[in-house]
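Hi V.,

You were right to ask for the full record rather than a summary. Here it is.
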Amino acid sequence: MVELTGDGSKHSNSNSNALQSELMTVYLAYAEDEQRQHYLALKVRQGTSLYEALGQAGWLEKFAALAKWCEQAVDITTPTAKRWHVGIYAQKQPLNYLLQPFDRIEVYRSLSADPMSQRKNKSRG
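Predicted structure:
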């Protein structure tokens, strides 16, 4: 199952135009497993953090494991190598990272086996 969602809302008055100029689009991607992948285009205000965007997207309610991890990592300013679950364009970022227009927020899942070990085993086998 692939979930593709977007925000197609449009506003017509001048106050809405001012609000629109403060908004930017970011993208979220999460592959729970081979069958369940989630993609979302989200409009957020400039100055929104990675953590705030996850909340605005509803992903902290939808994915309990992600919410639990975020609670534990919210105050960490330097991502750790193997246990970090979020990033921007494959670069691990702290949850307080301020988003830029068109950033792609990626939620990483834990791997069941080390890919390098798997390649070594295949080459021997």
